[in-house]
Amino acid sequence: MSELTNNEYCNIPFTTEMSKDDFYTHARLPDLISICEMDKENITKIRTIGIMESINGRFFIKDLDSANKTDASNILVSMSYVKSSLPSPVIPYTVQIFGTMQWKNRPVIFAKIVQVLNTTSAIQLSNAMQSIYSRHLASQ
Q1: Around Cβ 118, how many Cβ atoms within 10 Å?
Q2: Is residue 102 within 8 Å of residue 41, measured between CB atoms?
Q3: Which of 37, 45, 72, 122 lies at a CB distance of 3.0 to 4.6 Å from 94, suitable for a disulfide?
């Protein structure tokens, strides 16, 4: 069975009715850190997938890549805008986070939506989103 790929929607420009700022930008955590460090004045709408854990009452998200276990790769997550809570703040969860990112002496994600995923789904979703992201960058 042959596969038909239609990427014409990549060429549709953003307009005033459909602004780029209305969409969440997907990025891996290392990319988010570099984006935030390069442009410290801007607030960016982001969507990312990682492992969220609570350390001393503060939430941090780290990359799914197990080889990257340094504390420098952790990003602080503010849960003040999230209406629902996690089942248990003690256990680390694989999550998908939608929110805004801003520089506050370090990168901070102000979470709006936190979706808890099982590990397999998180890895598959992360790979799919990275593939889509890469394809769109190649078409620009």
Answers
A1: 10
A2: no
A3: 122
Tell me which residue of 60, 63, 33 sits closest to 50, measured CA to CA: 63
- Which residue range(s) make up the domain with 56? 23-139
43: DSSP letter: -
Domains held by the chain: number: 1
Q: Which pLDDT tens digit goes with each residue over 23-33?
A: 788 888 888 88
Helix (H) / strand (E) containing 98 = strand 93-103
pTM of the entire structure? 0.77
CATH number, domain of 43, equals 2.40.50.140
Mean pLDDT throughout 32-45?
A: 85
By three-state DSSP, how is residue 52 classified? strand
Q: Please, is 40 exposed, middle or buried when counting C-beta atoms within 10 Å of its C-beta (0-12, 13-18, 19+)? A: exposed
Give the helix ranges, DSSP H, for the chain: 29-38, 119-139
Is 133 a domain residue? Answer: yes
Tokens matching residue 14: 């953003």
